[in-house]
Design brief:
This protein is of the alpha/beta class and 334 residues long. It folds into two domains: 182 residues, D-Maltodextrin-Binding Protein, domain 2 (3-Layer(aba) Sandwich); 120 residues, D-Maltodextrin-Binding Protein, domain 2 (3-Layer(aba) Sandwich), CATH 3.40.190.10. Helix content is 35%, strand content 21%. It is built from twelve helices and twelve strands. The strands form two sheets. A seven-stranded mixed beta sheet has the order 1-3-2-4-11-5-12, with helices on both faces. It has a five-stranded mixed beta sheet with strand order 8-7-9-6-10. Strand 2, helix 3 and strand 3 form a beta-alpha-beta unit. Helix 3 runs antiparallel to helix 11, helix 4 runs parallel beside helix 5 and helix 7 crosses helix 12. The longest helix has 16 residues. It is elongated.
Length: 334
């Protein structure tokens, strides 16, 4: 267990930027029948003894949730406020939101500055590694090809001579010696999954030697910029998520100038992670409350947040296993 949070915030919902986060600790008492190793206690400094006591966490009196910024969610503070008011009412406790990017959300979990975080799949793996947080829910979107999974796609211009073939190997062979735009080296659908297929098919030995196959490799930094490289003729193909072929990533006019060359299914959808410091009973209450956002009378709150239509319960390990497998192949991890 990590260090918990302390302090009771006033009722209501507060929005706090990640830049002003402060670590708050939840005080807790030792059970009356707890056995104390007096010899070890004597060797510890007062600060160490206090830290050990704080590690025994209790149910938080204020629920703190991290909401990462996303390109397809504008006016996020207003939408987050609606979610928090709903959850505060359902849980009977204040809910505080912290807005930043995925990296900040993971760091907040690690530092016990939040209890819950909305995360995409690769940051969710990092949150497990650093904070022992786990995904309990996954988002469902209407433009996902799977319910809680979506495709990584390789996109070309509609007038490109590159054509989809009967097998992945035949299709991807056409990219040999071409200019390729990936989203970023950390992107699940915009890098990890397509590179894992290139490795599986024997085109490259690992993610570090893409230049052995492509004439040029660039990174757009986000889906829109990777697709713009194709639209402007700066790249022959781009790797992105399938939902990037919709506004606001591209306009309808731009979408009509592009087509999918190859699709790779099974990318884990974004989800909701809960810190291991949150007691099981409280975790169950959080999951139950969030699932009520699927109900017709509450669903617009969920749709407004990240364009998801539904939250579904998932097993953390099973949901993220396809990503673990793709990383192992792409990075040649033993």
């Amino acid at each position: 267990m990590k260090v918990g949070m302390k302090g009771v915030l006033s009722a209501g919902v507060a929005l706090v930027a990640f830049t002003s986060l402060a670590v708050n600790l939840v005080g807790c008492t030792q059970p009356e029948n707890a056995k104390v190793d007096t010899e070890q206690q004597a060797q510890n400094s007062p600060e160490q003894t206090e830290a050990q006591q704080v590690q025994q966490t209790t149910t938080p009196t204020t629920l703190k949730i991290a909401f990462p910024t996303r390109k397809d969610s504008t006016d996020l503070e207003t939408k987050v406020d609606a979610v928090n008011k709903f959850l505060s009412k359902e849980l009977g406790m204040p809910v505080e939101a912290k807005i930043g990017d995925d990296a900040a959300a993971v760091e907040a979990l690690r530092a016990n500055q939040v209890d819950v975080a909305f995360l995409s799949s690769k940051p969710a793996l990092k949150a497990e590694e650093l904070a022992n947080a786990r995904l309990y829910l996954a988002e469902v979107r209407p433009n996902y090809s799977g319910k809680q999974t979506y495709r990584s796609i390789i996109v070309v211009r509609k007038d490109s001579p590159l054509q989809s073939k009967s097998s992945a190997k035949e299709t991807l062979e056409q990219l040999r010696g071409k200019k390729m735009a990936f989203t970023s080296p950390t992107s699940t659908s915009g890098f990890v999954f397509p590179v894992s297929v290139l490795v599986k098919e024997g085109f490259v030995p690992d993610s570090d030697r893409l230049d052995q196959f492509f004439a040029q490799v660039t990174y757009g930094g986000d889906y829109s910029k990777a697709l713009q490289a194709v639209l402007r003729g700066q790249a022959d193909a781009a790797a992105v998520s399938e939902y990037a072929l919709f506004p606001p990533y591209v306009s309808e006019t731009e979408k009509n100038q592009l087509r999918v060359l190859h699709g790779i299914p099974g990318v884990p959808a974004h989800g909701v992670a809960i810190d291991d410091d949150v007691p099981q009973q409280m975790r169950d209450k959080i999951v139950t409350a969030m699932l009520k956002l699927n109900q017709p009378e509450n669903n617009q709150i969920l749709r407004d947040l990240y364009n998801s239509t539904e939250l579904v319960e998932v097993d953390h390990n099973a949901h993220l296993q396809p990503l673990r497998d793709a990383l192992k192949v792409a990075e040649k991890k033993s």
